[in-house]
Amino acid sequence: MKKLLALLLAAAMTLSMAAGGSSSSADASAAAEGSTAAASAEETATGSENSGRTDLVIAVDTDYETLHPVNTSMSIETNLVNQIYDTLAIDNPDDPTGDMIPRIAESWEVSEDGLCYTFHLRQGVKFHNGTELTAEDIGFSLDLCAASEYQGTMVDGMDHWEIVDDYTINVYTATPYAPFLRSVVDVPIGCKSYYESVDEDTFSQQPIGCGPYQFVSHSEGTSFVLKAFDDYYGGAPAIKDVTFKVIADVASMSIGLQGHQIDFAEVDASVLSTLEAAEGVNITTADATTFGFIAMNTQVEPYSNVAFRQAVNYAIDRDALITAYLEGQGTANSNLLTPDREGYSESQTQYTYDPEKAKELLAECGYADGFDAGTFIVAEQYKLMAQIVQADLAAVGITCELEILEFNAYLDKLMDGDFGMTCLQMALEGDTQQVSLALTADYIGMANNARWSDERVETLFQQAVETVDEDERNAIYEEIFTIVQDEAVYCVLYNPTMLFASQEGLTTGTIALEGYYYLQNFSWN
Description:
CATH architecture of the domain at 291-496: Roll
Number of strands: 21
CATH class of the domain at 291-496: Alpha Beta
């Protein structure tokens, strides 16, 4: 159940900036406000006039629902938790697969049998209420995470923990679990005494962390405010006051950036050219393991036929789709893995645009004269992607009629297996083992949108988590994804490029994989 909710919501999280440039007319008032901002742009500070500022205004396209450290379900919530809470360690944003950067934990070691992880904590780390962090808070946070329906997978493999002293904790797994270290160090650490002194709603809506920023206020649907925590163990941040403004409309957000009323925002590809031409606005990109894809229900004909699924893979012009749907801001890819993830190999089958090959395969399946696929369901957010896919399929003889659904109604059909084909985006970030949720029997009706399973793959994924040697583990993953590619389980289309706009003079540091950012790295030149 934990993984079900986590991955369903992971799919939903990719919607916000993936609607092909769509915007909501319901945000007319925000647009009007943005127009006013643009009109007064010449009165605002730009470029060198930003020098010395200690405030920051960030635009986001949606409000948050919770700031519970391990019950988040949206990217905005994750980004806020990254500022308010801290973790034992973090991945290096410049080298995500390299050595991790110590945070609350100064150091750690793993026992020879791979069952005990010992973390040595910094002394003097304070929560925002002045309470000093100890090993009790680490153990409490791990248990809180284990009970979460959202982030529970972060501590998969954990058996129990044991406090050695105030600044040392041993965390045990029952069996060797290779992904454990990189996952467990990423658990946000909450304050045990605060949790025990307030109700659940207060804990979630008035958070107390030990991160570089502390919560100030929240105006629902409008804005929220953070301020620097000057007693942060890593040093007081340069940016002291941060205001997040909720602007759901793509055009309004762009106008605010052009008018220099917004300092930083993730932006949609549809406004990229406008912002690139705007004076005093800089564009930064970030990579994502998110993937756009066609899912075929392999439990029904003809999608149970490997050759038919291969035909669909060859039928799609991925480069043209990226140009039309993502304004060119993406990378064509037919593999569930991005090239930098463990298990990816160039030797694995790569599906490229080959309509003649697609027709040959369809003929082998008995569909030389074409195939009527009936209804192709799609969430309204992915209508444009579906229309492009529909045209490519028709060109090789596969016809279908789009059924465009509200997202929750769409999810109901997807989870129930009430479909033949569909297309959407999903994020399965982190260790390659996370991708097993899209490929194993336990998650059919959840993240396994193809409703596909294979005993060989199930066994290999289990072997992978028990294999500590990195080279051996990578070889297992390569074998898995060679099978998956040969079987054309999914028709993967692209990995999107994430786009961020900022005002001239703002230094942000590296925007990490999946678009996560850390405000303590921000400063005005």
